[in-house]
Amino acid sequence: MVSTISKQKMYATRIDIAQNVREKVIDLLNQSLAATLDLKTQTKQAHWNVKGTDFYQLHQLFDEMAGELEEYVDMVAERVTALGGTALGTARLAAAESILPEYDLDAVGGMEHVTALADRYAAYGKHLREAIDSTDELGDADTADLYTEISRTIDKRLWFLEAHLVK
Ligand SMILES: [Fe+2]
């Protein structure tokens, strides 16, 4: 993917993390910001449109999950700015940069939405686990910790989703 993201302006900061490390971490965080925003809006899409006998519990579950993602959007964006970078978090940028596929717009019933979200939560979870390793290798333990926190929640939510799919 040709990224507009790596060409972003850096700001001076007194933080004791080398600029070349910060630049790499910021690029990764902005990719994650795009994916997190994308997943949040997809989860809301499920919240609004799910139908069928499990409607109410799934409608509520999806809203809880979207709320968590909204918090992570903010945490990821603010880690970018704490490192002297520019957070790239508009809807257009998220759509252009997200690693996730578009939502299943034909999903109607509960299990169709659960499956669509499980696929995307799994892909996002893989991205997070790779990001934990990358930021750890770069020596940015704080960003690795942020990714670890998000990753733990995403794994739990994947379990919640997949528990609905067991026959
Ligand atoms: Fe709502």
TrEMBL record:
<dbReference type="InterPro" id="IPR012347">
    <property type="entry name" value="Ferritin-like"/>
</dbReference>
<dbReference type="GO" id="GO:0016722">
    <property type="term" value="F:oxidoreductase activity, acting on metal ions"/>
</dbReference>
<dbReference type="Pfam" id="PF00210">
    <property type="entry name" value="Ferritin"/>
</dbReference>
<dbReference type="InterPro" id="IPR009078">
    <property type="entry name" value="Ferritin-like_SF"/>
</dbReference>
<protein>
    <submittedName>
        <fullName>DNA protection during starvation protein</fullName>
        <ecNumber>1.16.-.-</ecNumber>
    </submittedName>
</protein>
<keyword id="KW-0560">Oxidoreductase</keyword>
<dbReference type="GO" id="GO:0008199">
    <property type="term" value="F:ferric iron binding"/>
</dbReference>
<feature type="domain" description="Ferritin/DPS">
    <location>
        <begin position="26"/>
        <end position="166"/>
    </location>
</feature>
<dbReference type="InterPro" id="IPR008331">
    <property type="entry name" value="Ferritin_DPS_dom"/>
</dbReference>
<dbReference type="InterPro" id="IPR023188">
    <property type="entry name" value="DPS_DNA-bd_CS"/>
</dbReference>
<comment type="similarity">
    <text>Belongs to the Dps family.</text>
</comment>
<dbReference type="InterPro" id="IPR002177">
    <property type="entry name" value="DPS_DNA-bd"/>
</dbReference>
